[in-house]
Amino acid sequence: MFQPENQIYVMKNELVNVISSTILRLIFLALFSFFLFFSEVLFAAPLSSESEAIFDSKLDIVVKNISTRLLENESEVVVAVVDLVNYETQERDSRADALEEQLTNLLYEIQPNQVVPYFEIVYLRLEWKSRFPDILHGPLTEDIAKLAGADWLLTGTHKTIGGLMYVSLKLYDLKSGNLLWQTVVGSERTAENEEAESVLEEMLTEKIEQKSSELPFQQTAQVHVPNFSNPSQYHSLEQEAGIESKVEFSPVLIPPSVEENVTKIPQAMLKIPAGEFLMGSDLGDEDELPDHLVFIQSFYLDQHEVTNEEYSKCLTCERGHGGFDTIDPQQPVVYVDWKNAAAFCKAQNKRLPTEAEWEYAAKAGSETEYSYGDEISLLDNYAWLETNTVDLGHWGAKNVSTKQANQWGVFDLHGNVMEWVQNYYTQDYFSSVRQPNNPKGPIAPLDEKYPLRVVRGGAWGGRYAAGTPAGLRSAKRYAFVEWTRSFQIGFRCAKDVHTKIVTYE
Fold first, then answer.
1. Where are the domains of the chain?
2. Both ends of the chain: CA-CA distance in Å?
3. pTM of the predicted model as reported, rounded to 2 decimal places
4. Cα–Cα distance measured from residue 158 to residue 98, given in angstroms and rounded to the nearest whole number
5. Cα(80)–Cα(108) distance, integer angstroms
6. May I ask the CATH architecture of the domain 269-496?
7. CA atoms lying within 13 Å on the CB side of residue 30
8. How do residues 62-89 score in pLDDT, each as one tens digit?
9. Burial class of residue 298, CB neighbours in 10 A (0-12, 13-18, 19+)
10. Among the four residues 118, 150, 219, 260, which has the most C-beta atoms within 10 Å?
């Protein structure tokens, strides 16, 4: 069937118009994209080729110094380069990405077995965004480094004024929190940039003077884990002017906050850093589902379980007796019910830890079954459990702090005796998922006549498979009626950092 000639002509014209319109749109988009790119280049204030070459040569020197430190360390450590943020905005930008990649690649070329590759850091950030799309901020700097399996963290800030690039670098030991080394890398001075550099030096000098009157170094402070959520928190204490390409500092601890300056860590307690973690386990028991993100404010936690010697000082606290009892002063106290455990902590101006706080401290920054990893054969190094007690004919709980501490310096969170925590027990985490900030769980027991409380940590042996590797997992949950007195159960106390008055619901 043939169409009329005039209709064919009309269709041809329409087709030409559509093609022309499409071509014009494509040209417009191309010009617009080119304009955006060109304007970004214009306003980016790039370094001159000469300055960039000088900067790169100085960066090479820094990399060689870090490499030397890696080789000279007593044990083999792994370093990760994370978050060289913009000094002004305190945010990551394209320059931060480029510097991070450049430093990582330079280090990787020299020490490939002791440097986390750049693509792994990129992957971890992408995985975070994919897993937690509703969280606006990115993961903490230290969390990225730890997830990458790093022992040391290289982080810092960058700033450009008048074509001069300055990069402040700090090298931290993630386990101890020590600041191992720091330096400033800067471009060479030129006549054109003299004025801009002078402004930078004056600005930084002013900040150093202001900060030094507010926040003096306290090298005797005990800091177990750094919090790098704001990498430049102590930025003004650095020698930022960077006249030399490298400035050596003797090892010092990360300076504490102003509040820490006036608040001493209570005796036999550790300050657990604030942070986020995945509570629960998708691979665990039904009452550990679903795993969910929880934020924990910094708090103090007993370094070990409450001992018989410590408990005996509470004249109003009661305990029971029975089989597999503990009598040594340094053994954990057992046969203590929930109310007496809570009363002891209150008498010490402390409290029982929440379930979320306990698991957060037990995981100590890990996402593995145990604080140190997943290898069951290594449990003997960190915990008293059936394999090194019952199976060898040694029954009962052992003296506290006789096994290795976890990464945060806390002992016996895996094994020895299980531990009471604040929370009432509920079979699922549904209510907790809706409480991302240190969930306390239900405010009343599900059964008033049979009030169940949560118990954590596993034990040296006994009932409920508490002494097995599965029973010692960081996410493992137990439930006991609150008047239970057992040879398997002890406790430790916690304390708020900012609150002196302890109350219980």
1. 49-261, 269-496
2. 87
3. 0.52
4. 11
5. 10
6. Alpha-Beta Complex (3.90)
7. 6
8. 888 888 888 888 888 999 999 988 888 8
9. middle
10. 150
